[in-house]
Amino acid sequence: MKHKLLPLSETMHYILLALREPFHGYAVMQEIEEMSNGSVILAAGTLYGAIENLNKHGWIEVVGNSGRRKVYKITAEGSTVLKLEQQRLLHILSLYEGSE
Amino acid sequence: MKKVKWFFNIEKEEQWLNEQLQKGFHCTGVSGFGIYTFDKTEKQYVMRLDYQDNLPKDKLQEYKGIYEDFGWNYVKGSWLSGIRYWQKEEGIQNEIFSDRESKGKYYKRLMGYSFWMGMLCFALSYMVYKDLSGFYHDGLWNMEGALFWYALLFETPFVLVKLSPVMLAILFASSFYSGYRNYSVLAEK
Question: Quick check: A11 and B101 CB within 8 A?
Protein backbone atom coordinates (compact mmCIF):
# COMPACT_ATOMS: atom_id res chain seq x y z
CA MET A 1 0.00 0.00 0.00
CA LYS A 2 1.05 3.58 -0.57
CA HIS A 3 2.73 5.51 2.23
CA LYS A 4 0.11 7.40 4.23
CA LEU A 5 1.66 10.79 3.42
CA LEU A 6 1.50 10.12 -0.35
CA PRO A 7 0.55 11.76 -2.58
CA LEU A 8 1.99 14.76 -0.75
CA SER A 9 -0.45 17.42 0.47
CA GLU A 10 0.26 21.00 -0.58
CA THR A 11 1.58 21.78 2.92
CA MET A 12 3.93 18.77 3.05
CA HIS A 13 5.07 19.34 -0.53
CA TYR A 14 6.04 22.95 0.11
CA ILE A 15 7.81 22.10 3.38
CA LEU A 16 9.94 19.38 1.76
CA LEU A 17 10.79 21.71 -1.14
CA ALA A 18 11.71 24.55 1.23
CA LEU A 19 13.88 22.26 3.38
CA ARG A 20 16.26 21.44 0.56
CA GLU A 21 17.95 24.35 2.35
CA PRO A 22 18.25 24.23 6.18
CA PHE A 23 15.68 26.42 7.99
CA HIS A 24 14.07 26.70 11.42
CA GLY A 25 10.26 26.47 11.74
CA TYR A 26 9.27 30.10 11.30
CA ALA A 27 11.75 30.59 8.47
CA VAL A 28 10.14 27.62 6.66
CA MET A 29 6.83 29.50 6.74
CA GLN A 30 8.46 32.70 5.39
CA GLU A 31 10.28 30.77 2.67
CA ILE A 32 7.04 29.07 1.60
CA GLU A 33 5.19 32.37 1.51
CA GLU A 34 7.82 33.64 -0.92
CA MET A 35 8.00 30.41 -2.98
CA SER A 36 4.22 30.38 -3.44
CA ASN A 37 4.02 34.11 -4.26
CA GLY A 38 2.04 34.69 -1.09
CA SER A 39 -0.65 32.12 -1.80
CA VAL A 40 0.39 29.60 0.89
CA ILE A 41 0.73 31.06 4.38
CA LEU A 42 1.03 28.29 6.97
CA ALA A 43 -0.40 28.73 10.46
CA ALA A 44 1.58 27.80 13.59
CA GLY A 45 -0.25 24.59 14.51
CA THR A 46 -0.25 23.30 10.95
CA LEU A 47 3.48 23.94 10.57
CA TYR A 48 4.31 22.36 13.94
CA GLY A 49 2.25 19.22 13.21
CA ALA A 50 3.68 18.83 9.70
CA ILE A 51 7.30 19.20 10.87
CA GLU A 52 6.69 16.65 13.67
CA ASN A 53 5.15 14.24 11.19
CA LEU A 54 7.88 14.57 8.54
CA ASN A 55 10.54 14.20 11.24
CA LYS A 56 8.84 11.08 12.61
CA HIS A 57 8.86 9.48 9.14
CA GLY A 58 12.52 10.35 8.68
CA TRP A 59 11.94 12.62 5.66
CA ILE A 60 13.47 15.62 7.41
CA GLU A 61 15.92 15.80 10.33
CA VAL A 62 17.32 18.25 12.86
CA VAL A 63 20.71 19.48 11.63
CA GLY A 64 21.49 22.07 14.29
CA ASN A 65 20.22 24.91 16.42
CA SER A 66 19.73 28.61 15.86
CA GLY A 67 19.39 29.97 19.39
CA ARG A 68 16.53 27.99 20.95
CA ARG A 69 15.14 27.04 17.53
CA LYS A 70 15.77 23.69 15.87
CA VAL A 71 17.05 23.82 12.30
CA TYR A 72 15.70 21.18 9.91
CA LYS A 73 16.80 19.82 6.54
CA ILE A 74 15.49 17.19 4.14
CA THR A 75 17.02 13.65 4.42
CA ALA A 76 18.07 11.31 1.59
CA GLU A 77 14.77 9.48 2.03
CA GLY A 78 12.88 12.77 1.81
CA SER A 79 14.72 13.64 -1.42
CA THR A 80 13.71 10.27 -2.89
CA VAL A 81 10.09 11.06 -2.05
CA LEU A 82 10.39 14.39 -3.87
CA LYS A 83 11.88 12.66 -6.93
CA LEU A 84 8.96 10.20 -7.03
CA GLU A 85 6.43 13.01 -6.62
CA GLN A 86 8.13 14.95 -9.40
CA GLN A 87 7.78 11.98 -11.78
CA ARG A 88 4.14 11.54 -10.81
CA LEU A 89 3.37 15.21 -11.40
CA LEU A 90 5.33 15.31 -14.68
CA HIS A 91 3.25 12.42 -15.91
CA ILE A 92 0.04 14.19 -14.97
CA LEU A 93 1.28 17.36 -16.70
CA SER A 94 2.01 15.32 -19.85
CA LEU A 95 -1.61 14.17 -19.81
CA TYR A 96 -2.73 17.82 -19.75
CA GLU A 97 -0.65 18.51 -22.85
CA GLY A 98 -1.81 15.41 -24.70
CA SER A 99 -5.47 16.45 -24.54
CA GLU A 100 -4.95 19.83 -26.21
CA MET B 1 -11.61 40.63 36.53
CA LYS B 2 -12.30 36.96 37.24
CA LYS B 3 -15.02 34.86 35.65
CA VAL B 4 -16.00 31.32 36.54
CA LYS B 5 -17.43 29.04 33.90
CA TRP B 6 -17.25 25.33 33.21
CA PHE B 7 -16.94 23.85 29.75
CA PHE B 8 -17.02 20.32 28.40
CA ASN B 9 -16.80 21.44 24.80
CA ILE B 10 -13.56 23.06 23.70
CA GLU B 11 -15.14 24.87 20.72
CA LYS B 12 -17.78 26.51 22.95
CA GLU B 13 -15.02 27.47 25.36
CA GLU B 14 -13.02 29.09 22.55
CA GLN B 15 -16.12 30.91 21.34
CA TRP B 16 -16.96 32.21 24.82
CA LEU B 17 -13.36 33.37 25.40
CA ASN B 18 -13.37 35.31 22.13
CA GLU B 19 -16.68 36.93 23.07
CA GLN B 20 -14.98 38.24 26.23
CA LEU B 21 -12.03 39.52 24.17
CA GLN B 22 -14.45 41.31 21.84
CA LYS B 23 -15.66 43.29 24.87
CA GLY B 24 -12.19 44.84 25.22
CA PHE B 25 -10.42 42.35 27.46
CA HIS B 26 -7.43 40.08 27.16
CA CYS B 27 -7.02 36.84 29.04
CA THR B 28 -4.20 36.62 31.59
CA GLY B 29 -4.86 33.24 33.15
CA VAL B 30 -6.89 30.04 33.05
CA SER B 31 -7.06 27.75 36.04
CA GLY B 32 -8.09 24.10 36.18
CA PHE B 33 -11.31 24.88 38.03
CA GLY B 34 -12.89 27.06 35.38
CA ILE B 35 -11.55 30.38 36.68
CA TYR B 36 -10.61 32.77 33.87
CA THR B 37 -8.79 36.03 34.56
CA PHE B 38 -9.14 39.02 32.22
CA ASP B 39 -7.64 42.50 32.06
CA LYS B 40 -8.98 45.57 30.28
CA THR B 41 -7.13 46.45 27.08
CA GLU B 42 -7.30 48.93 24.23
CA LYS B 43 -6.03 46.37 21.73
CA GLN B 44 -7.99 43.65 19.97
CA TYR B 45 -6.96 40.10 20.85
CA VAL B 46 -7.97 36.66 19.60
CA MET B 47 -7.67 33.31 21.34
CA ARG B 48 -7.28 29.84 19.85
CA LEU B 49 -7.38 26.54 21.74
CA ASP B 50 -5.23 23.58 20.75
CA TYR B 51 -5.13 20.14 22.26
CA GLN B 52 -1.75 18.47 22.88
CA ASP B 53 -1.37 16.06 25.75
CA ASN B 54 1.77 15.56 27.81
CA LEU B 55 4.51 16.59 25.39
CA PRO B 56 8.04 15.68 26.54
CA LYS B 57 10.13 18.68 27.56
CA ASP B 58 12.05 19.21 24.31
CA LYS B 59 8.92 18.79 22.18
CA LEU B 60 6.99 21.22 24.37
CA GLN B 61 9.81 23.73 23.93
CA GLU B 62 9.72 23.34 20.14
CA TYR B 63 5.90 23.48 20.14
CA LYS B 64 5.82 26.69 22.18
CA GLY B 65 8.76 28.14 20.26
CA ILE B 66 7.05 27.82 16.87
CA TYR B 67 3.78 29.31 18.14
CA GLU B 68 5.61 32.19 19.80
CA ASP B 69 7.52 32.93 16.57
CA PHE B 70 4.11 33.34 14.92
CA GLY B 71 3.16 35.91 17.56
CA TRP B 72 1.08 33.67 19.83
CA ASN B 73 1.34 33.96 23.60
CA TYR B 74 0.89 30.91 25.78
CA VAL B 75 -1.77 31.50 28.43
CA LYS B 76 -1.04 29.02 31.18
CA GLY B 77 -3.28 26.00 30.71
CA SER B 78 -4.75 23.72 33.34
CA TRP B 79 -2.52 20.96 34.70
CA LEU B 80 -4.97 18.13 34.15
CA SER B 81 -6.08 18.44 30.55
CA GLY B 82 -3.98 18.96 27.47
CA ILE B 83 -5.85 22.07 26.32
CA ARG B 84 -3.39 24.77 25.26
CA TYR B 85 -4.61 28.36 25.31
CA TRP B 86 -3.03 30.66 22.74
CA GLN B 87 -3.64 34.39 22.47
CA LYS B 88 -2.38 37.07 20.10
CA GLU B 89 -3.22 40.50 18.85
CA GLU B 90 -5.58 40.32 15.91
CA GLY B 91 -3.70 40.38 12.61
CA ILE B 92 -3.68 38.86 9.14
CA GLN B 93 -3.34 35.24 10.29
CA ASN B 94 -5.67 34.62 13.25
CA GLU B 95 -5.90 30.85 12.90
CA ILE B 96 -3.59 28.15 14.22
CA PHE B 97 -4.51 25.66 11.49
CA SER B 98 -4.28 26.56 7.82
CA ASP B 99 -5.22 23.29 6.15
CA ARG B 100 -7.93 20.67 6.46
CA GLU B 101 -5.48 17.89 7.31
CA SER B 102 -4.17 19.57 10.46
CA LYS B 103 -7.63 20.73 11.56
CA GLY B 104 -8.87 17.14 11.16
CA LYS B 105 -6.01 15.83 13.28
CA TYR B 106 -6.92 18.37 15.95
CA TYR B 107 -10.48 17.03 16.09
CA LYS B 108 -9.10 13.50 16.33
CA ARG B 109 -6.92 14.49 19.30
CA LEU B 110 -10.00 16.00 20.96
CA MET B 111 -11.99 12.83 20.36
CA GLY B 112 -9.22 10.74 21.91
CA TYR B 113 -9.22 12.96 24.99
CA SER B 114 -13.03 12.86 25.44
CA PHE B 115 -13.04 9.12 24.85
CA TRP B 116 -10.52 8.34 27.60
CA MET B 117 -12.02 10.82 30.06
CA GLY B 118 -15.45 9.31 29.36
CA MET B 119 -14.11 5.79 29.90
CA LEU B 120 -12.52 6.86 33.17
CA CYS B 121 -15.83 8.27 34.43
CA PHE B 122 -17.62 5.19 33.20
CA ALA B 123 -15.25 2.93 35.16
CA LEU B 124 -15.70 5.18 38.18
CA SER B 125 -19.50 4.94 37.85
CA TYR B 126 -19.24 1.17 37.77
CA MET B 127 -17.24 1.12 40.98
CA VAL B 128 -19.73 3.46 42.68
CA TYR B 129 -22.89 1.71 41.47
CA LYS B 130 -21.98 -1.98 41.63
CA ASP B 131 -23.16 -1.92 45.23
CA LEU B 132 -26.60 -0.43 44.59
CA SER B 133 -27.86 -0.67 48.17
CA GLY B 134 -26.21 2.68 48.96
CA PHE B 135 -28.71 4.43 46.72
CA TYR B 136 -31.98 3.60 48.39
CA HIS B 137 -31.56 5.35 51.73
CA ASP B 138 -34.11 2.95 53.24
CA GLY B 139 -34.60 4.92 56.42
CA LEU B 140 -35.62 8.04 54.47
CA TRP B 141 -38.74 6.62 52.87
CA ASN B 142 -40.12 5.51 56.25
CA MET B 143 -40.06 9.04 57.64
CA GLU B 144 -43.09 11.29 57.67
CA GLY B 145 -44.00 14.99 57.45
CA ALA B 146 -41.39 17.68 58.05
CA LEU B 147 -38.78 15.18 59.12
CA PHE B 148 -39.03 13.51 55.70
CA TRP B 149 -38.44 16.80 53.88
CA TYR B 150 -35.49 17.75 56.06
CA ALA B 151 -34.00 14.32 55.55
CA LEU B 152 -34.62 14.51 51.79
CA LEU B 153 -32.86 17.89 51.61
CA PHE B 154 -30.01 16.46 53.63
CA GLU B 155 -29.62 13.37 51.44
CA THR B 156 -29.93 15.12 48.06
CA PRO B 157 -26.34 16.42 47.86
CA PHE B 158 -25.02 12.93 48.63
CA VAL B 159 -27.10 11.45 45.83
CA LEU B 160 -25.84 14.15 43.46
CA VAL B 161 -22.25 13.36 44.37
CA LYS B 162 -22.92 9.69 43.72
CA LEU B 163 -24.45 10.57 40.37
CA SER B 164 -21.61 12.88 39.29
CA PRO B 165 -19.43 10.22 37.58
CA VAL B 166 -22.25 9.19 35.30
CA MET B 167 -23.14 12.83 34.56
CA LEU B 168 -19.49 13.51 33.70
CA ALA B 169 -19.42 10.39 31.53
CA ILE B 170 -22.43 11.75 29.62
CA LEU B 171 -20.80 15.19 29.20
CA PHE B 172 -17.59 13.66 27.85
CA ALA B 173 -19.62 11.43 25.54
CA SER B 174 -21.38 14.52 24.15
CA SER B 175 -18.05 16.27 23.67
CA PHE B 176 -16.75 13.15 21.86
CA TYR B 177 -19.80 13.28 19.60
CA SER B 178 -19.28 16.98 18.87
CA GLY B 179 -15.64 16.26 17.92
CA TYR B 180 -16.80 13.45 15.66
CA ARG B 181 -19.43 15.68 14.03
CA ASN B 182 -16.90 18.46 13.40
CA TYR B 183 -14.51 15.91 11.95
CA SER B 184 -17.07 14.46 9.53
CA VAL B 185 -18.31 17.91 8.47
CA LEU B 186 -14.70 18.81 7.68
CA ALA B 187 -14.24 15.61 5.66
CA GLU B 188 -17.35 16.35 3.56
CA LYS B 189 -16.73 20.02 2.81
Answer: yes
